[in-house]
Amino acid sequence: xxxxxxxxxxxxxxxxxxxxxxxxxxxxxxxxxxxxxxxxxxxxxxxxxxxxxxxxxxxxxxxxxxxxxxxxxxxxxxxxxxxxxxx
Length: 87
Hints:
Elements: E1 2-4, H1 16-22, E2 28-30, H2 52-63, H3 67-81
Parallel strand pairs: 1-2
Helix pairs in contact: 2-3
């Protein structure tokens, strides 16, 4: 799996959008680097787990998908990687 986090929309992370675009959906995860590297539009603030939706929204934008679809497959991927999440 490939974990996508806060720096995705940063200007100095120019290759990340290409990775997101090219990666198979069943290999993508959404994560944060709490308390560091908050996503745009919260850059410079303390990062929080709740900000993961900003990353999912950027993935959806890059891939031309809905945020609901991104949430569906990244949740499924996380549950497969961490089976205890299903309990």
